[in-house]
Design goal:
The protein is α+β, with helices and mostly antiparallel strands. The chain is built from 5 helices and 7 strands, in the order E-H-H-H-E-E-E-H-E-H-E-E. A 7-stranded mixed beta sheet has the order 1-2-3-4-5-7-6, with helices on both faces. A hairpin with a 5-residue loop joins strand 2 and strand 3. The longest helix is centred in the middle third of the chain and has 15 residues.
């Protein structure tokens, strides 16, 4: 089982270490255009200070080990909705179901702590394991958009998904 707790400055080195072997394409896939390659402490500190983002860490309750990170964005209490993203599982333990556990915990957190009724996310179509995970967690596809990525001279399709809580 996992629990979500606030991400803070002391967690930054670990998150950055999980991205050490990543390239600019992976950072864009993981974080969208908000962060620039290479991701650094300054960029994460800006997000920590911002009221527009809620950064969380996922902790395995048995080992107390941090196994993932995630964010809530565009929290709109009037509309009772938010976006989720920047979901990352420790590379050493990917493929063991922690992603689904993390998404389900985010749904609980959104409903119980933030008192939201809906969350949405975007995932690139080539990230099939994440897409399948979101479907298993109860998200439905609502739209597909083509995104021109000028720095790579490529077009990526992003799928918007949402889930009622």
């Amino acid at each position: 089982m996992i629990i979500l707790e606030k991400f803070d400055q002391e967690n930054i080195p670990q998150l950055l270490s999980w991205l050490e072997k990543s390239d600019a394409k992976f950072l864009l896939q993981f974080a969208g255009p908000r962060y620039k390659f290479p991701l650094n402490e300054e960029q994460l500190m800006e997000s920590l200070k911002s009221k527009d983002y809620m950064l969380l860490k996922a902790i395995d309750t048995e080992t107390r080990r941090i196994i993932g990170h995630c964010q809530f964005m565009r929290i709109d209490t009037k509309q009772s909705k938010a976006s989720i993203g920047r979901i990352l599982i420790d590379p050493e333990i990917r493929g063991n179901g922690f992603g689904l556990q993390l998404i389900n915990e985010m749904k609980i957190y959104a409903k119980e702590e933030l008192e939201l009724s809906k969350i949405d996310l975007r995932v690139f179509d080539f990230n099939t394991s994440a897409f399948r995970c979101y479907l298993k967690a109860g998200f439905i596809e609502t739209s597909v958009h083509e995104n021109h990525i000028p720095e790579f001279n490529e077009t990526w399709k992003s799928i918007t998904m949402e889930c009622d809580l």
